[in-house]
Design a protein that fits this description.
CATH class of the largest domain: Alpha Beta
Shape: globular
CATH superfamily of the largest domain: Endonuclease Chain A
Strand content: 15-25%
CATH topology of the largest domain: Endonuclease, Chain A
Number of helices: 20
Number of domains: 3
CATH architecture of the largest domain: 2-Layer Sandwich
Helix content: 40-55%
Structural class: alpha/beta
Radius of gyration: 23 Å
Largest sheet: 15 strands, mixed
């Protein structure tokens, strides 16, 4: 009995220490309460779960994104970014100037420059994206940088791999980063084939058994291609056959997604992100030089677009992606159009959408009617009640699975990227969104949104409120663990 008493005292002391650690280390009140409940009511397992998945690596600086240790050079780069962004802003169109707060926030928060002189092409689904990617790879002259969360060993993955191998054979330097969890299908064969052909390939965060849970939790969810420092691709489309809706496949699930091609200085911050990620995972480090960061042309492209990048992850001081979305929502005066496959917004984003809708802004949200996760879908639906009561229109996509992550504000701003509207994207994953301050691109993306809702079911607020109680209970229960999903 004495040993049992001693064990109980030791367990209680450990539990108190873990709870204090959770309170001190977790920024979100909701997540703090969720981890506390888990630690207290699930003996041992709750504490193990927290140490595997809950430690705040943004706060602990487990990752570093500095490209140079030279403080003088860093100060000069900071000054150059502010000067360049100020010049861009002062010579930009009214649609950029009306969103000054968003542009300035990104410059100050993450030194993301406001870039002019860009050509931007909206790419809907894989059938539009992959031909553009293959064409751009073929035109590469110096280097190709490619970084993906999911890269499959299938027809599409091998077509791009073959193109990369050909360019490596021509003397073009090819660097490839893949997420070791999301791209686990290519570890054995395809990566070896790339390396044998001269492609430099590294997993972003190699999964080791002893660190399995923690490394699964912090995923590189980015999809970035940068070619010669001047052409870039970013968005929601991974490298996989599933993103191509080919004719003659009547039983295949229609996969709806969105990507961007950016030609111009808008590629520079994506290049910066790639180099930071490369220096974290690769065996040899890279430093910024003129080949990676060519000077923006003094003669911008015809009908040029203003582009800025929002990126965040465990290497950033703040949840920049979340902040940029909140600012875009707050600045909207007429209309907000959002498409997201996973919607677990948290209190700040939920409140921002409700405030906008109650203030007379037309807020429309497109989410999957067909989901790949029952629990995540249930947690997402628990948020619909408040949104519907505030006047938000919610549409359930029925044609297939909608995987796009986009936002359009007042048909002036178009946001396309990798970040879902959930805790994982805002707190845990390495994510990146492109922001285009242009009515033409925003109008085109709005047109795609309105085309998508033609094959979606609009939720009737009255019918939704009267749905079975067991469904409501299941959704509310799922919401309790939503910060942990």
């Amino acid at each position: 009995m004495n040993w049992l008493l001693i064990a109980e005292i030791v367990y209680f002391i450990i539990l108190v220490m873990v709870c204090l650690r959770i309170i001190y280390d977790t920024r979100s009140t909701t997540k703090t309460l969720a981890y506390l409940l888990l630690a207290i009511f699930v003996p041992f397992g709750g504490m193990l779960f927290y140490f595997s998945f809950g430690i705040n690596y943004r706060k602990r600086k487990m990752y570093s994104k500095k490209l140079t240790a030279d403080d003088d050079l860093s100060a000069k780069l900071r000054e150059d970014v502010f000067r360049y962004s100020k010049h861009t802003f002062e010579h930009s169109d009214p649609e950029v100037q009306s969103n000054r707060e968003l542009a300035l926030m990104l410059v100050k928060d993450s030194l993301s420059p406001l870039t002019a002189g860009n050509e931007v092409k909206l790419l809907v689904n894989g059938e539009q994206k992959f031909p553009e990617v293959l064409d751009a790879i073929q035109r590469a002259r110096n280097h190709i940088h490619i970084e993906y969360y999911i890269y499959e060993d299938d027809k599409t993955g091998n077509a791009i791999a073959d193109a990369l191998i050909r360019k490596a054979g021509e003397g073009v330097t090819v660097r490839f980063i893949y997420d070791d969890f999301g791209s686990r299908a290519i570890r054995k064969k395809l990566v070896r084939r790339l390396k044998a052909a001269g492609v430099h390939a590294f997993p972003f965060h190699k999964i080791l058994f002893i660190a399995l849970a923690n490394r699964l939790n912090y995923r590189n969810h980015r999809k970035i291609i940068v070619i010669d420092g001047g052409t870039a691709f970013v968005g929601g489309i991974n490298v996989s056959d599933r993103y191509i809706n080919a004719a003659g496949q009547p039983n295949a699930l229609f996969w709806r997604d969105t990507h961007l091609r950016i030609d111009g200085p808008g590629a520079l911050y994506l290049q910066y992100l790639f180099l930071c990620d490369w220096n974290f995972c690769a065996s040899h480090k890279l430093q910024p030089d003129a080949l990676f960061f060519p000077r923006p042309s003094a003669h911008p492209f015809k009908d040029s677009k203003v582009v800025q990048i929002a990126a965040s992850g465990p290497d950033s001081d703040t949840p920049t992606v979340l902040f940029s979305l909140l600012q875009a929502i707050n600045l909207a005066a007429k209309e907000i159009l959002i498409t997201t496959p996973y919607f677990i917004p948290g209190e700040s984003l939920l409140d921002a959408l409700m405030v906008a809708a109650l203030g007379g802004v037309s807020v429309k949200l497109l989410v999957p009617g067909i989901s790949d996760s029952v629990l995540v879908n249930a947690a997402a639906r628990s948020y619909y009640d408040d949104l519907l009561k505030a006047g938000v229109e919610i549409y359930l996509y029925k044609k297939g699975f909608v995987h796009a992550k986009t936002l359009v504000s007042d048909k002036k701003i178009a946001i396309v990227g990798t970040a879902n509207m959930d805790y994982r994207s805002f707190d845990l994953n390495f994510e990146v969104n492109a922001i285009v301050y242009d009515s033409g691109v925003a109008g085109e993306l709005a047109g795609v949104f309105y085309e998508d809702i033609l094959t979606a079911e609009k939720i009737d607020p009255v019918a939704w409120e009267n749905r079975p109680l067991w469904k409501q209970m299941f959704e509310k229960t799922a919401r309790l663990v939503s910060p942990l999903l």
